[in-house]
């Protein structure tokens, strides 16, 4: 006869299940904040709306994150993590530019709106400052294996930041009215020129 599960094993299983449920609730809350921000083109999000969308109470939202500011700080970390995972791998120039254009196609207009509000809203300013820093770090990491030796690294990174910037996408896609393939081709041409690959 086989012995039954030990009490410690059951307790361990229950604790792991609870921790997984807590983590899933946190992710649902963070996704709700992200989605509401995109839909409303604003950071003026009401916690009751987050709670409704997530299927929890406002008290539960606050229990997870401590305060409204805590919710937004965690949501910013969550979104930055998503963006970093989707942006491509070091040395893959074509993949990096394609992933970046894909991102801009999805949330570029929202990002432009947020940049227009950063002077009036400290939460938005924290987000846009973080976004700028993340973009520069991404450029440095992704293009490091292919930076030209003839150009100082800081100069090359500055030029690559401009070539891959949101406003570069906006100028080509929204102001010029080019299609997505043309925008990707032109951004890639700018990157290749900086890298000496034209």
UniProtKB/TrEMBL annotation:
Keyword annotations from UniProtKB, A to Z: DNA-binding, Transcription, Transcription regulation
DNA-binding region location: 46-65
Residue ranges the record marks as coiled coil: none
Ranges for domain HTH tetR-type: 23-83
InterPro entries: Homeodomain-like_sf, HTH-type_TetR-like_transc_reg, HTH_TetR
Full protein name: HTH tetR-type domain-containing protein
Species for this entry: Actinomycetospora chlora
Lineage: Bacteria, Bacillati, Actinomycetota, Actinomycetes, Pseudonocardiales
